[in-house]
Amino acid sequence: MTTVRICHLYPENMNIYGDRGNINVLIKRLEWRGHSATITPIGIGEDFSPDDFDLCYLGGGQDRDQNIIAADLTKKAEGIRSAAKDGVAFLWVCGGIQLAGHGYTDANGNNLPGVSILDLETVAGEERLIGDVVLDAKIGDNNFTVVGYENHIGQTNLGPDARPLGNVVKGFGNNGTSGVEGAVQQRVIGTYLHGPLLPKNPILADALLTWSLEHRSSEKISLEPLSDNFTEAAKGRAIERAQANR
Ligand code: GLN
Q: Ligand 1 centre from 168 Cα, in Å?
């Protein structure tokens, strides 16, 4: 049994569209396999120690929320980059993917510095990109479908060091024109997908858990499969809805 140490960044500020539900999925999918998790909320003014964690989670937030945390996140940036370099798993969602990059210029022209754990830049566009999303996703040699919901004004462009989480089958994705969504670099995943994301995307959840267990144990991990019938049924319904809507 292994205890995975999860950091939940700015849970009071960056938690829209039920993103907190992602934490619950990570906990339960560990417990169903005989492991456990500790969850450490770290907010404004609280130290982030890179050696203390195996997985770092940041949910989405409006421009206002991102402005509130921006200065504090800059103070944590060096430790966050050190954690990413050391192989800690990251899932940063929507406002999170934007701040995982080099910077986000918001709808009012404020340039919020990112922590540069993903090679990308984000600038607010003219229209909000809203709706159901279906992706053909790939992590490692694993190809799978990902479903979610997006609502963002930011338009993200990837640099050469970041690869997309997936190709857009339905929806806008990173910027409405590139045909891709999200970003993956080392064990860092950034995505615009809310829902929350992980309840309907168990392969993504297990990829993050595999990385975090490997970081904690320094061993190669192969997670035993879980019975995900209900999850796959919910994903199938989400795909049908996305196909019908656009
Ligand atoms: N404020 C950012 C945007 O509008 C992120 C929104 C979000 O986290 N849903 O693009």
A: 19
Which pLDDT belongs to residue 20? 84
pLDDT of residue 246: 56
CA of 141 to the centre of ligand 1 (A): 30
Closest CA to 99 of 60, 137, 64, 129: 60
13 ligand 1 Cβ < 6 A: no
The response to whether residue 97 sits with its C-beta less than 6 Å from ligand 1 reads no
Site to probe by mutation for ligand 1, drawn from 62, 120, 128, 130 as the one with most ligand atoms within 8 Å of Cβ, is 62
CATH number of the structural domain spanning residue 154: 3.40.50.880
7 is known as an active-site residue: no
- Domain of 27? 3-245
d(CA 169, ligand 1 centre) in Å: 21
* pTM > 0.85: yes or no: yes
Contacts of 46 (CB under 8 A, 6+ apart): none
Count up the domains in the chain and report the number. Answer: 1
pLDDT at 159: 98
What residue ranges of the chain have pLDDT lower than 70?
246
